[in-house]
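Explain this fold:

***
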Amino acid sequence: MSYLVLARKSRPQTFAEVIGQKAVVRTLQNALVQGRVPHALIFSGVRGTGKTTLARIMAKALNCEQGPAAEPCNLCRSCRQITEGASIDLQEVDGASNRGIQEIRELKEKIRFMPTSSRYKIIIIDEVHMLTTEAFNALLKTLEEPPSHVYFMFATTELHKVPVTILSRCQRYELKRLGHAELIAHFNRLASLESVQVEPEALDMIVREAGGSVRDGLSLLDQIFSYCGQTVKTEDVIDVLGLVSHQLVANLGAALLSGDLGAVYTLLDEMYLHGTDTRRFSNDLLTWFRSLIVCKVSKKPADLLEATEEELTLLQQTAALHSLETLSAIFNLLLEGLEKATFSQQPRLALELTFIRAVQFRDVVPVSDLIARFDQLLAGAPLETLPASPVAVVSPQPPATIPHKQPSSAPAPVQPAQAAFAPARESSQRFQPSTPAAPEPLPELQPSAPFPKESPPEQPPQPAAQVEVTSSRQEAMPTAPADEKKRIRQHWSLFLKYVHERQPWMSGALQLASSVERKGEELLIRFDDSADCTMLKQSSHINTLTEFVLDFFQENLRIQFAVPGSSACAIDPANGLAPQQERRALANDPLVLTALDIFTGQVGDIRIGPRYRTSSPAATLSAADPSATPE
């Protein structure tokens, strides 16, 4: 017979040989002894944890000639046939390749007949989540009330993909990942049976790569046995699996914490010479920093970490030298930077940049210390008694004020708030409060006299509209953001009231609109009947309505009408352009531009409607809010 790999050779044949699943094994054995075995079981868990193995052992225990018993004898004809895969009454179905409804129909036909040579018919469906919805539905009734001589056993790695109607008809057994110590002991025993000596650190690397899966670990172990022969060394495991030495990762992490960037570059170059995968190296380094944080915060880190006693001691010693804030800050920087390096076209450069940032951020001043020092400053403590800060705190400058004149004989006191916001200086210097030269008080500004209303000065011919300009005194006031502009739908009712004061019939016609919305630079007004917009679409009325829209919303909008299934209310693109052109001309009027330059102002509202076509001045300079201008 051809060579059997370790994953098949060492497959458990009894419940006692199953490792790491004590709760599941005990439940199954008690069910066998007490006669409480359910007609349908489903085993779930990650790959290589023993789902199919437990199903086969359960089948042997049910059909054993000495049972049903808590342990199969593995000596009777039924047990031997199941072990050899030759049992007629045990049918294993691959759910990935037999996932249709036709296969389930054939299976239902077969289970109608009594078992040939065993006590029960056992149906094992592996990867049951791969079945189609129709196949699951065809199985529902049989699974709920199967014949008394049939047992169903399912195995899946993705339990969430199995319909709830199937899960409710089965007893669920969730298998967990195997622990680090259990896998090491199991692999040690197998290595002894194979007459192979494995170094403890090499075996630890294999177990880490297994990730809690027995089958994955056995495959790696088999591969390394083929490479190394009778002795497995740590260097051999690193070469075969392309791993990074844990000592190299620890040295690089210590160099980052100590700020030795030269050592970081040397170790990084050594890692690249080994041909290590960047993703694997990143994961190992992040795991190392995570282990430091666990050692810092946990009283029993051994329960949370998969590490040997020697590695755990070194991690605890390293964690004791640094604060939790420093460790978490560097861990966060590495987590973000290494993730980017994984997908970068230049991963080494991205790694180096990440390490430079980590070295520069190795000393972190806790926020609590900064707050405590700030409280001392507010309490009036002398600056000399405060410790030097390794981190400069830079904040925006406080708003400028006009200082009062201090007597020349007394030094100016240092304001606590200003001292708190001052950047920290080097530890070799002392910040001494000095006496700033008190500036002369500024002359009081006199308000300018308003324009006389009785006899306005002669001015050139005025334009046929009113332009409101804010003066330089309002320049310091916050301007309204874009999101505070009048929105079409939100202010439509106010606009209708605005139009009603000027053209009542036009407001009544606009009230018949079914909806209104803005599309780019267009104001789209929809009507259900084309008769509702017959008057509005005339050229003279469109110009008037456009003036109202421009004056109210203060935006250059073109009006368009829309009627479902009709173009009767379509507007000529040339209509409504005159008010927009007039508005632009007023904004660019030389007199207006001159006023803006003289008073350092800005254009507020531009109104061109018929209500403003009076003999008022062409440009009214207003220091008040434009919305307060009388209409």
About this structure: The chain has 24 helices and 13 strands. The chain has four domains: 6-174, 180-241, 246-360, 466-473+485-621.
